Amino acid sequence: MQIQVSIMSETPAYEQIRMQIKEKILTGALPAGTQLPSIRLMAKDLNVGIITVKRAYEELENEKIIVSMQGKGCFVNEIDRDSVKKMYMLILKEQMLDIKGFSCIYGIKKSDILEIVNELWGDEIGR
Amino acid sequence: MQIQVSIMSETPAYEQIRMQIKEKILTGALPAGTQLPSIRLMAKDLNVGIITVKRAYEELENEKIIVSMQGKGCFVNEIDRDSVKKMYMLILKEQMLDIKGFSCIYGIKKSDILEIVNELWGDEIGR
Amino acid sequence: MQIQVSIMSETPAYEQIRMQIKEKILTGALPAGTQLPSIRLMAKDLNVGIITVKRAYEELENEKIIVSMQGKGCFVNEIDRDSVKKMYMLILKEQMLDIKGFSCIYGIKKSDILEIVNELWGDEIGR
Amino acid sequence: MQIQVSIMSETPAYEQIRMQIKEKILTGALPAGTQLPSIRLMAKDLNVGIITVKRAYEELENEKIIVSMQGKGCFVNEIDRDSVKKMYMLILKEQMLDIKGFSCIYGIKKSDILEIVNELWGDEIGR
DNA sequence: GTGGTCTAGACCACA
DNA sequence: GTGGTCTAGACCACA
Questions:
Q1: What is the pLDDT of residue C122?
Q2: Residue B67: inside a domain, yes or no?
Q3: Do C66 and C85 belong together in one domain?
Q4: In a domain, D6, yes or no
């Protein structure tokens, strides 16, 4: 499995691993039922400790994205994309609420936010 | 000076102090030239350690928002609101870029972002 | 033989198998002399590994509840219900002693224990 | 603080520490507000790693029995003995339900349970 | 000074 | 072979 762990990055190794696997699963590159590489193997490949891989897998399991079975291995779960999206929308809203709180101190208005959104997302009109 | 430090909050004490003073300054509640309470006094009032207040003041000084003068005290700086806003806009853009990166994994589109923005900022048409 | 192995359960597969067979034997559903299904057959039926069934049988043999005969199969042993009950009573006493140790820390008294016993075992007067 | 960690015991070190501190707190030997020894100090005294003590403290914090404050230390919480007792009664009931499940397989009846209870708790009539 | 996080390996349980 | 638990220390953040 193609995964990069940068030792220079300030995001911890387990988080880098977690995010890359998550992305592969959510984008469908790793379909439901796929067996992930064993903890030991991936640890060896990435040149990190098994604890680090273990933690990445553990958090993915907490997110219900994979399931780990003692003595058997770790497997990709069936994903309900809609509920995942909804859940993430909620988190996003929290983040934006935070941003809103700060922004008003700096005199930033809705128009400024829209400007940034338009700049970053370009002219795709949505859907 | 009216400042609340919640011991329960997970944001550290020095950060709570820093943000509240910053808000007062940026919103104009504390105009340029105002003298801040001495570190010792504020520490006593807020029931926190001197080191904690010192750190808050230090960071505000690094942000050029206040200036501390040996033996005289700390004073609110002249603020160029426009450049502060511009600086913050850059930070905001970085944050939004991050959000954009994550969002595409979850199948979130521009329209979803706009929906959140409209919901949070209401119908203020901007400017 | 009717046995359920839940892959979701947190008790390991071999333990689920062991307990269910044990129950059938102790309650008399499988009388002494009965031949158990072969390891291979049961593994296939239950959709688990041979090693898993083997372990369940092994432990039952250690408990003298079944006996395995090279090349012939596994058979239910003659059970002396009284001595089995006595043995289990000893284990139970150990467990209750443990519970007693903890309970006093929490201020739980004999009356509280009796309340629970009465609630769970209902009004059967015993014997 | 008087704490024994037996390296021979099969209960893990962090659990031994957790239980002994918990007992001291619940019995009132460590009243609310008391500062616990720092993680490092206790680790040194008990000759275990700081992780081990950390974990003991962490679990006590999850149980709301102590509270840890970064940079300040760990402190004994105010305990509501009644709710603690009620919570433990529930756990106890679960355990007894489990015991009941096993017992019926072995032909153990309410009277047998009562016999054990009477033997262990003696003739204290309750309260 | 304090507690918190990350990475680590030895050892254990399960299939 | 697989994953799970425990103990460990280096390093970081906070007061």
A1: 84
A2: yes
A3: no
A4: no
- Whether C93 has a pLDDT exceeding 70, the answer reads yes
Ramachandran angles phi, psi of D117, nearest 5°? -60, -45
Alpha carbons C118 and C125: distance in angstroms, whole number: 10
Q: State whether the beta carbon of A71 lies below 7 angstroms from any atom of strand E.
A: yes
Question: What is the domain extent for residue A46?
Answer: 13-76
Asked whether at least 3 C-beta pairs link B and C within 8 Å, the reply is: no
Tell me which amino acid residue A123 is. D
CB contact set of C18 (below 8 Å; sequence gap of 6+): C55, C56, C59, C60
Neighbours of chain C (3+ CB pairs under 8 A): D
Q: Into how many domains does chain C fold?
A: 2
Q: Which residue has the tokens 């500062």?
A: D35
What are the structure tokens assigned to B100, written together? 């954009």
Instruction: Tokens for C60, please give them.
Output: 């039952």
pLDDT at residue D127 above 60? no
Pair B72, B87 in one domain: no
Q: Compute the nearest-CA separation of A22 from chain B (Å).
A: 9
A112 falls in which pLDDT band (50, 70, 90)? very high
A68 touches strand F (CB under 7 A): yes
In-domain check, residue A100: yes
A73: left (phi over 0), alpha (psi -120 to 50) or beta: left
Residue B50 domain flag: yes
| CA→C1' distance for A32 and E12 (Å) | 30
Residues B92 and B67 occupy one common structural domain: no
